[in-house]
Amino acid sequence: MPHMFIFGLGYTAKKLADALVAAGWTISATGSEGDVDFADRDRVCAALGRASHVLSSVPPERDGGRDPVLTAYGADFRPAWYGYLSSTGVYGDAGGAWVDEASPTGTGRRSARSEADAFWLKRKAHVFRLPGIYGPGRSALDKVREGSAHRIDLPGQVFSRIHVDDIVAGVVNALEGDAPPGAYNLADDLPASHNAVTEEACRLLGLDPPPLQTMDEAGLSPMARGFYAENRRVANGKAKRVLGWRPRYPTYREGLRSLV
């Protein structure tokens, strides 16, 4: 019976763990919903010794870019398979152009993530680069309901996104298909503006969209402003070719409808 050890059982990794348990896997994990304390070295190493697969969803440290998992336990695991949930933020700003796994990384605001991404690739890991993640309890629908949704006046600004179930499907395909290590973009087929997604969420809920504002008028935090500082379209062709993956929700429209 395959046994996966997951570092960081958060929103996305928990969805993956649930799918693997349903398929007969054994799961051990750190994180708020895990069964092992990250700081308990004896228990972590014991679980790693039993694991056939290791996956990390732990982000790097903001200062210095160190990956806490590789720093603390990188010398303690040698599984048959290991993966890392990374971010398409490693590509930085592309001025709205398409990026793929061969595009340069490390030029954007996510320098720490880029370094961690590179460290895992050197370890021959399966690195899944993810754009904006949405799903149950975490989507534009929730923001509209809460009254926190906004529309920013930035013509030509586009982003890619991915439904959490499609991330799970991509990782499972990599596990079951014996895919080679390397980077894989898991993104939907239709990069779109944040405004378009908000407007669709409002339409589905029968509500008027929020007013169009500048970033100053919206009072965005520095982190949110950084989000709007980058503009790119993420290509998913490699995942389709190599993993045999197809997103169940190819655009935000199908994804949001499934959540209503």
Task: Write a structural description.
With 260 residues, the chain is of the alpha/beta class. Helices cover 38% and strands 17% of the residues. It contains 11 helices and 12 strands. It has helices spanning 11-22, 41-50, 68-73, 111-122, 140-146, 164-176, 194-205, 215-218, 222-228, 237-243, 252-259; strands at 3-7, 26-29, 53-56, 81-87, 98-99, 126-130, 132-134, 151-152, 161-163, 182-185, 212-213, 233-234. The strands form 4 sheets. The chain has a 6-stranded parallel sheet, sandwiched between helices. It has a two-stranded parallel sheet with strand order 5-12. α1 (11-22) crosses α6, α5 (140-146) packs across α7 and α7 (194-205) runs parallel beside α11 (252-259). The protein is globular, with a radius of gyration of 19 Å. The two termini are 37 Å apart. The mean pLDDT is 94.
Overall structural class, as computed from helix and strand content, comes to alpha/beta
Instruction: Tell me the number of strands.
Output: 12
Largest sheet descriptor: 6 strands, parallel
Q: Name the shape in a single word.
A: globular
Radius of gyration: 19 Å
The low-pLDDT segments are none
Cα end-to-end separation: 37 Å
Q: For the largest beta sheet, what order do the strands appear in spatially?
A: 2-1-3-4-6-10
Total of DSSP H or I helical runs spanning 4+ residues: 11
User: What letter string, H or E per element, gives the SSE order?
Assistant: EHEHEHEEHEEHEEHEHEHHEHH
What percent of residues adopt helix (DSSP H or I)? 25-40%
- Proportion of beta-strand residues: 15-25%
